[in-house]
Amino acid sequence: MSMDTPDASADDAPTDDAPSRAELAARVDELEEALAEATADDGGKKMSIIATKGTLDMAYPPLILASTAAAFGYEVTVFHTFWGLDILHEERSKNLQLSSVGNPNMPVPNTVAALPGMDRVTTKMMERRISDNDTATIEELLETSLDMGVEFQACQMTIDLMDYDEDNFYDGVTTGVGAATALQDMAEADIQLLV
Asked: Structure pTM?
């Protein structure tokens, strides 16, 4: 009986069938790299919102949705077109009106809502409710959203059509954006909303 112990270097030597340790280590590195690429976070989910209305009650939904999605880590783009551009306009956004005619949730019948000056009355009622509930203003929501990385885009065709001055938009608003860009953004988004 022999008491010989096997030579440690013999285990490292490749055989015809088995890969060497160096080959195994290289393959493990390859697999770990492939796994990292496959599971890498590609920037999270995307949300694309189209904002088309510029009344006080319709300015809140895209801003609330955008800021909330950004808080949850979404990459958010809001494309503003037609009257939705008033939300991005520094002066006009402070004077958005609430239309009382045809609004089924207004506490005013349409016959009364159609009277001159009723939009001003219902707007003041809503502004008071917003203030009493410490709800963020349009300006506060917009600035918060911009700080969170939300991209607000202004439709170039509407800027030209309505003769907007691009200098009157909030700082950080992207101008010169067309419908093709908005459609491409929507195609790449996980969530698409039209408000």
From this structure: 0.73
